[in-house]
Amino acid sequence: MQKQRSGSRRIDDPRIAERSIVLMLVDEEHAVRWSRADIEQELFDVVPEAVGLALEGLRDGGVIELEGEEVWALSAARYLGGLGMLCV
């Protein structure tokens, strides 16, 4: 079940979703690999289409890898995350 505040509008901008996904994937306190379903669940306020476009954009940009339902950050993104170079 998706969480949503009554009257709130869901985000449909893939660029916003991209930022959130990168931060999720480089967070050292969480799993290295995520499932698409887990990402969509975490981004409950983003429409699924925007999450899909964000994942494709990040893959095409060389930031993440997609294999089936698994998603993970490539080593350069994880390294920059470890240096604290990625933030909102």
Sketch the major β-sheet: 3 strands, antiparallel
Order of secondary-structure elements = HEHHEEH
Distance between the termini: 27 Å
Q: In DSSP terms, counting alpha (H) and pi (I) runs of 4 or more, how many helices?
A: 4
Estimate what percentage of residues fall within beta strands: 5-15%
**Which secondary-structure class do the elements indicate?**
alpha+beta
Number of strands: 3
The rough form would be described as globular
Strand order of the largest sheet: 1-3-2
Mean pLDDT: 88
Contiguous runs where pLDDT drops below 50 for at least 5 residues:
none
Give me the Rg, rounded. Answer: 13 Å
Fraction of helical residues = 40-55%
Walk me through this protein's architecture:
The protein has 88 residues and is an alpha+beta fold. 47% of the residues lie in helices and 12% in strands. The protein has 4 helices and 3 strands, in the order H-E-H-H-E-E-H. It has a 3-stranded antiparallel beta sheet. A hairpin with a 2-residue loop joins strand 2 and strand 3. Helix 1 (14-26) crosses helix 3 (48-60) and helix 1 crosses helix 4 (75-82). The mean pLDDT is 88.
List keywords for this structure.
88 residues, alpha+beta, 3-stranded antiparallel beta sheet, 4 helices, 3 strands, 47% helix
